[in-house]
């Protein structure tokens, strides 16, 4: 049993460097990425799919679901960090560091509130994975995946030391497995990252960083 953590495909916001709004769909290129991901996973024993209810994640999850003959279960806890009043703003017009450690977006989530929500999402992921006779797929967003990697999967802040990419590519696949017996699935204390931010399905020219502008 494993958990497949997936970032959504490319959107116009990623492409054009705009802080995304919730209803941002996949671009044509992003839909192609989602189809390639779905082809990659079509013969994997995935039994259940959870996804953020934001459009870009649900579209990606639905492509995977069609390939596997599975429905998609929406979980709002898997949404990207809410940047509030700054959503829809081109990055070039920002006068702040959107990702700075102390930045609190007006009308949005502080890092502390966001990380606490991701903690609750991780609890739900573990509950969903427990008892499956196969794997669980989870389609979410870049900052959610980074928060999970740093705070729950044993990967630290230093990419050179711990292997955590500073940016996680569109439709990247991270696979995590329990490093021990059952208790790790119960308390989340012991995990092994078997595959990290892989975009091999996007072709030989992919470097794992395709479509990373924006979130």
Structure description:
Helices cover 33% and strands 16% of the residues. The chain is built from seven helices and six strands. It has helices at residues 12-16, 28-41, 55-68, 111-129, 142-151, 159-162, 183-187, and strands at 2-7, 46-51, 73-74, 135-140, 173-178, 191-198. α2 runs parallel beside α3 (55-68). It is globular, with a radius of gyration of 16 Å.
Core attributes:
disordered C terminus; 215 residues; 6-stranded mixed sheet; alpha/beta; globular
Looking across the biggest beta sheet, what order are the strands in? 3-2-4-1-5-6
Taking pLDDT < 50 over at least 5 consecutive residues as the criterion, the unreliable ranges are 207-215
Number of strands: 6
Number of helical segments with 4 or more residues: 7
For the biggest sheet, the summary is: 6 strands, mixed
Q: What structural class results from the helix and strand content?
A: alpha/beta
What does the radius of gyration come to? 16 Å
Separation, N- and C-terminal Cα atoms: 29 Å
What is the strand content?
15-25%
| Overall geometry | globular
Q: What is the string of SSEs from the N terminus onward?
A: EHHEHEHEHHEHE
Return the average pLDDT rounded to an integer. 89
Structure in a nutshell:
With 215 residues, the protein is of the alpha/beta class.
Write the layout of secondary structure elements.
Elements: E1 2-7, H1 12-16, H2 28-41, E2 46-51, H3 55-68, E3 73-74, H4 111-129, E4 135-140, H5 142-151, H6 159-162, E5 173-178, H7 183-187, E6 191-198
Parallel strand pairs: 1-4, 2-3, 2-4
Antiparallel strand pairs: 1-5, 5-6
Helix pairs in contact: 2-3
């Amino acid at each position: 049993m494993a958990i497949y953590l997936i970032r959504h495909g490319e959107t116009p916001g990623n492409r054009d460097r705009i802080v995304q709004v919730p209803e941002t769909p996949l671009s044509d290129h992003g839909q192609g990425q989602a189809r390639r991901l779905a082809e990659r996973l079509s013969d994997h024993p995935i039994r259940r799919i959870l996804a953020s209810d934001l459009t870009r994640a649900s579209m990606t999850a639905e492509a995977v679901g069609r390939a596997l003959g599975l429905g998609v279960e929406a979980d709002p806890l898997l949404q990207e960090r809410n940047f509030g009043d700054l959503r829809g703003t081109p990055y070039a017009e920002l006068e702040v560091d959107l990702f700075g450690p102390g930045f609190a977006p007006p009308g949005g989530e502080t890092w502390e509130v966001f990380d606490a929500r991701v903690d609750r999402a991780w609890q739900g992921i573990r509950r969903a994975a427990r008892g499956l006779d196969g794997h669980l797929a989870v389609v979410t967003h870049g900052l959610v995946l980074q928060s999970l990697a740093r705070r729950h999967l044993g990967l630290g802040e230093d990419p050179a030391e711990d292997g955590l990419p500073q940016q996680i590519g569109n439709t990247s696949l991270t696979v995590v497995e329990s490093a021990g017996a059952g208790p790790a699935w119960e308390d989340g204390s012991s995990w092994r990252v078997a595959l990290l931010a892989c975009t091999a399905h996007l072709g030989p020219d992919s470097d794992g960083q395709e479509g990373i502008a924006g979130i």
